Amino acid sequence: MRDLGIIEDGAVLISGGKIVTVGTTDEVAKHELLTSKPSHIEEIDCRGKVVLPGFVDSHTHPVFTAPRLIDFEKRTAGASYEEIAAAGGGIRASLRGVRDSSREKLAEHVRTAFDDMAVLGTTTVEAKSGYGLSFAAEMKSLEAIREASHQWAGTVVPTLLGAHVVAPEYRDDPEEYVRIICEDMIPAAAKLKLAAFVDVFCERGAFTMEQSRQILRSAVEHNLGVRAHVCQLTPEKLTPLIEFHPASLDHMDFVSDEDISALARLDTVVTLLPAANYFLGLKAFPPARRLIDSGVAVALATDYNPGTAPTPSMPFVLSAACTHMKMSPAEAIVAATYNGACALRLQGRKGSLEPGKDADIAIFDASDHRELAYWFGVNRCRETFLNGVRQTAARINL
Ligand SMILES: [Zn+2]
Predict the structure, then answer these.
(1) What are 87-96's pLDDT values in tens digits?
(2) Of all helices (H) and strands (E), which one includes residue 130?
(3) What residues contact residue 320 under an 8 Å CB cut-off, 6+ apart?
(4) CB count, 10 Å around CB of 189?
(5) How far does the centroid of ligand 1 lie from the alpha carbon of residue 59, in Å?
(6) Please, are residues 114 and 154 in contact by the beta-carbon 8 Å criterion?
(7) 303 CA distance to ligand 1 centroid (A)?
(8) pTM, full prediction
(9) What pLDDT is stored for residue 144 in this prediction?
(10) Ligand 1 centre distance from Cα of residue 343 (Å)
(11) Which residues, 6+ apart, have CB-to-CB distance to 34 below 8 Å?
């Protein structure tokens, strides 16, 4: 994770949405596409800038309609995440807005979030449902993600998170809600190709390990990928989840040393979400050093959501990872690009600048890669290419 493969005086040649070649400017200039004197070549001068693979934000919750300002204000007065949820805030507070909104309206919100992310250098986004919590509202949320993805040049990976919390109607009968997820939501999402992954919030106050396993088992039976929110608020043994070969386990603030050793032998990525720790005002941050030093593949993502991480900014996450988790700037960049792609099982197409990969590129006003994690509260991304489509500077300069 410390080897970025930096090319000084580098150049990238792209065509048809794909990377054709990468190397020094001299090497790339010798490519036959350029020496055969083509008529339609556009050259972009990146002298004095850092050119990166676009960020892969592998964990976001963009399907919601309003910020949660009451929760926010309560938290400033000292209430905990669980106290706010018990008072009717939290995830359930976003539910009404999603259930009452049209698919078009939700898609508009999602599309705005994707645009905000691209401005900050993100070109691939994993997007979860999870604020509908009924069959109809979860399907509508996934359709909104699909509609927004058709209007956006970047790449979107949709995830069904019907198992975010138990729907309020089933508070006294959570098993029935789990049954609806397993027997209605997952089969429909698979059949309509509305989701690539199924996610579950395995946590006190959300879903038990046994319920989580039922949900993931159904996902595997329907040929969907598997990922989970786990060990965010309380410790949990991971062996019962690992059996399902998750692409990623996310949060992991309370992961044990024993489970870290097990994870180091697997290709499951651990996705850390420090923006949530920051926003919740926690003193402790996810244990990046223990994980990386043990050989676990670590990714970083925003966790963009209205309750615990209202930020579309991967550069902010890089800053938090370096200052609070003692990741090096190089490790943070790898975690936000290549390892994020691995967390979505897209490393063959995304996450690095290599011939044949999608032309997902972010250009930063910085002369050294370490500046990306150094500056915070300011956007240094000047341009992005999303599958070869250039994002206009007008939007970026806002
Ligand atoms: Zn999350």
Answers:
(1) 778 887 899 9
(2) none
(3) 274, 275, 277, 278, 285
(4) 26
(5) 6
(6) yes
(7) 5
(8) 0.96
(9) 98
(10) 14
(11) 13, 28, 41
